[in-house]
Amino acid sequence: ANLRLAAKEAAKQGVTITIEPLNPRDMPGYFLRTQAQGAAVIAEVGEPNVKLQMDVYHMQITEGDLEVKLRQYAGICGHVQVAGVPGRHELDETQEINYRYVAHVIADLGYTGFVAHEYKPADGRDHFASLKQAVEIMRV
């Protein structure tokens, strides 16, 4: 009920609200864990300006099956966020997700919104070089 009220007020200002499932390792006790749970909340709220923030980092840790989840919930996606797993570091070969493939899936879905990179630079890495590399990996 509170989210529905907030969504209606936000809509008056042209604002979209995104809700984000988080993994239990990083956020123990957080109530929203899976894309399906987020989709259920969005359906219950029933307001078109409430969307799912698809954080690929959290999705991989909690659920895996990234391509299936991205395709399944693309219609309610309001924002995509990426970070390397397991350490939230660079999007490179030191991480378990093939982000070049993920970028192609996102593009194939016709997603035109922002993709944000939330990361903690690994020790000894050039932060700007890492960001440049992430842009190149995600650019399709």
Note the beta-strand portion.
5-15%
Q: Name the poorly predicted regions.
A: none
Largest sheet at a glance? Answer: 4 strands, parallel
Indicate the multimeric state.
Answer: single chain
Backbone CA Rg: 16 Å
Number of helices: 6
* Series of secondary-structure elements, N-terminal to C-terminal: HEHEHHEHEH
Q: Give the overall silhouette.
A: globular
In percent, how helical is the residue content? 40-55%
Distance between the termini: 40 Å
List the helices and strands and how they pair.
Layout: H1 2-12, E1 17-19, H2 35-45, E2 50-55, H3 56-62, H4 66-73, E3 77-82, H5 99-108, E4 115-117, H6 127-138
Parallel strand pairs: 1-2, 2-3, 3-4
Features:
alpha/beta, 42% helix
How would you portray this structure in words?
With 140 residues, the chain is of the alpha/beta class. The protein contains six helices and four strands. It has helices spanning 2-12, 35-45, 56-62, 66-73, 99-108, 127-138; strands spanning 17-19, 50-55, 77-82, 115-117. The longest helix is centred in the last third of the chain and has 12 residues, at 127-138. The protein is globular and about 45 Å long. The protein starts with a helix and ends with a helix.
